[in-house]
Design goal:
heterodimer; A: 222 residues; mainly alpha; two-stranded antiparallel ribbon; 7 helices; 2 strands; B: 423 residues; alpha+beta; Chloramphenicol Acetyltransferase; 7-stranded mixed beta sheet; 5-stranded mixed beta sheet; globular
């Protein structure tokens, strides 16, 4: 074992210098090389960081160029659409990356984003009602279908998906409000969405009723 | 089709509630217990030992889940797998893999058990690693005559998963005067990249150390606390001395309340020394440390502090706040409370094993990452391990601390990780 004459301690491992004072160590006479106590773990090299930074630069460039060209040519302020488009893309991307560990949660978050952004776009482009007529019910239905397929394909445990399915079904019933209040002019998508949700709810209650109640008790305990 | 049974689940205990919102890459709230044996570890045997041990610790097979109002632990079917240590110690494994809240790894002659603090505290972890090591040695040394069961204390599965905080909440003692802690001196400096931290472990003789401690009329914990304060003082500028050095020391509440729980059951003490007012010699520091210990180890004081901590979780208005908002509140409360902390010290005490396997074990040690400086102490037979972890590149405080021990005439053996090659 080596030792540090300055610190007056002996040192384990293959250190050339004292881990305390960085002074050179004195080897003992019978010294054989010792292994390090902890494994060597290199710093993480982020593989996608270059791609990510390129995307950042391209987005910024696109925004600047759109505004500049729009300013020079004048006329209708179409560059705002370009800026809003880039912002929406980033919102979806950031949420997608942050929730990447849980695909069901990711899907639920993305669904919220798509619906909110659709309503927002519809509002700012003169309310034509397409977001409520088509986007919201069709998104809800697709996400319910996607979740049902994903839990089968990925063999997700019952307890891990119930809460998302309950949440999605709850969302899926919302379009009934659109129909009752006359908020939507085209009722077929909304009606289908409500029907799909109710059937899913029945299926869930019949097959997983007890688990569903238990999961809700756990998730909502005070 | 047979209905799957709803899973067992547990509320987080009071101390555990603060960990999920405040865990970060720089402070993962994971701690590691290691046991170094005489021979290299055999992975297959370690796996068998873990499989046997997990039967006694069924409650540890849990994952952390997010509810609407609180986090909770949910029983899981995942079987823990051992693997060779290949990541920086105490990483956030529990979040990245949606897995169990503990991990068993090996490296060379060492068995490591890393546990997320929301699951248990040091006492529970010691029981767990002792059981794993005992099963391991039982397999590798079939000639040894001992009962692995005698290691674990006599408790049922429900007693082990009991929330003792809840059991003893209430009965507020009268006339407890509490001193409010001022803002503490803060360690500063460049930090290691990627939230890595320096681990420096000093091994010395328990009997020699205790002799020195008794000469100074101190106990093991008080002397190490005083030496840590002195080491920190050595690196303080004159202007920084206007703030006191405050070291937090956890108190094992099992010493005050009857509990066989393997969950968290500890309180905190704040040990304060003001170098401008209370003197700078080791004797002066020991005097303040002893006074703080005497005041805060008083049973009434301990109960008062525990009740205070529990009042938060029992407040009906706080309970109905959604978790995402609660997290913001808990984070800010935590950040305010760490302003009263310079460093942390944790003494897990004596670890005992059946006499038949004593010669087969070299030492036990523990450490945990921190944003400040942390000293962890444990002893096994006559081997005392004092592990100093710190995220700072500079190791001047550690150098002063271990030189302080060596200057008492104690033979100190240093074991450390080497971050210099990793840059």
């Amino acid at each position: 074992m080596k030792s540090c004459k300055k610190c007056n301690v002996s040192v384990n491992g293959s250190f050339a210098r004292c881990p305390l004072c960085q002074h050179a160590l004195t080897p003992d006479t019978d010294s054989k090389t010792q292994d390090m106590t902890y494994p060597f773990v290199p710093l993480i090299k982020h593989k996608h960081i270059f791609l990510y930074r390129m995307l950042q630069l391209c987005s910024f460039a696109a925004v600047v160029i759109a505004i500049a060209v729009n300013y020079v040519l004048g006329g209708h302020r179409w560059s705002l659409f370009a800026v809003a488009g880039v912002a929406c893309m980033w919102l979806g991307l950031i949420v997608g990356v942050r929730k990447r560990h849980n695909i069901l949660k990711n899907l639920a978050y993305q669904m919220n984003i798509v619906c909110l952004l659709a309503v927002w776009w519809d509002l700012f482009t003169g309310w034509r009602g397409w977001s409520i007529d088509y986007v919201i019910p069709i998104t809800f239905m697709s996400v319910i279908a996607a979740t049902t397929i994903l839990v089968r394909v990925l063999k997700v445990q019952t307890d891990d998906f119930i809460i998302y399915l309950v949440l999605l079904i709850f969302y899926g019933i919302i379009p009934s409000v659109f129909i009752v209040t006359g908020l939507c002019t085209i009722t077929i998508p909304s009606m289908s969405c409500v029907a799909v949700s109710l059937i899913s709810l029945a299926a869930l209650l019949i097959f997983e009723g007890r688990n569903m109640a238990a999961e809700l008790r756990r998730r909502f305990h005070l | 089709m047979i209905d799957s049974q709803p899973k067992a689940w547990y509320k987080l205990d009071n101390a555990a509630k603060i960990f999920p919102p405040t865990s970060s890459k720089s402070d993962t709230k994971v701690f590691r217990f290691s046991c170094e044996l005489n021979d290299a570890i055999d992975p297959a045997t370690l796996q068998s030992a873990l499989d046997a041990a997990i039967d006694d610790f069924a409650g540890f097979r849990c994952t952390l889940k997010r509810g609407m109002f609180w986090y909770y632990l949910e029983q899981s079917d995942i079987m823990p797998r051992v693997h060779e240590e290949d990541t920086p110690p105490c990483s956030m494994f529990y979040l990245e893999r949606k897995g169990l809240l503990f991990e068993v790894t090996w490296y060379g002659k060492r068995i490591n058990v890393e546990i997320y603090h929301a699951l248990t505290d040091g006492t529970g972890a010691v029981q767990f690693i002792k059981t794993i090591v005992a099963h391991y040695l039982k397999i590798t040394h079939p000639e040894t005559q001992f009962d692995v069961g005698e290691i674990d204390y006599d408790a049922s599965d429900t007693q082990k998963m009991n929330d003792s905080f809840n059991k003893y909440y209430g009965n507020e003692p009268k006339h407890v005067k509490r001193t409010k802690m001022p803002t503490a001196h803060k360690l500063r400096g460049a930090k290691e990249p990627e939230w890595r931290f320096n681990i420096i472990e000093g091994t010395l003789s328990v009997s020699n150390f205790l002799r020195e401690a008794h000469n100074l009329d101190a106990t093991m914990t008080t002397l190490v606390t005083a030496l840590l304060m002195q080491a920190i003082f050595g690196e303080m500028s004159v202007r920084e001395r206007k703030r006191p050095v405050i070291i937090t020391v956890p108190v094992n509440l099992r010493n005050y309340f009857d509990s066989k729980s393997n969950r968290n059951f500890f309180g905190m003490m704040y040990i304060k020394h003001d170098f401008n007012r209370d003197g700078t010699t080791l004797t002066d520091i020991i005097a303040s440390v002893k006074a703080c210990f005497a005041e805060q180890l008083n049973p009434d004081y301990v109960r008062h502090r525990m009740n205070k901590m529990l009042a938060f979780e029992h407040n009906p208005f706080i309970r109905i706040v959604p978790l995402s908002l609660k997290n913001i509140v808990m984070k800010s409360v935590y950040h305010m409370s760490v302003r009263m902390v310079t460093a942390q010290l944790s003494n897990i005490g004596k670890i005992t094993m059946p006499s038949e396997v004593k010669p087969l074990i070299n030492k036990f040690s523990l450490f945990t990452p921190t944003e400040r400086a942390q000293v962890c102490i444990c002893s096994y037979e006559d081997t005392l391990t004092i592990t100093f972890t710190s995220p700072f590149v500079s190791k001047d405080v550690q150098c002063r601390f271990f030189r302080g021990l060596a200057d008492m005439g104690l033979a100190v053996e240093i074991t450390a990780n080497d971050l210099s090659k990793q840059k």
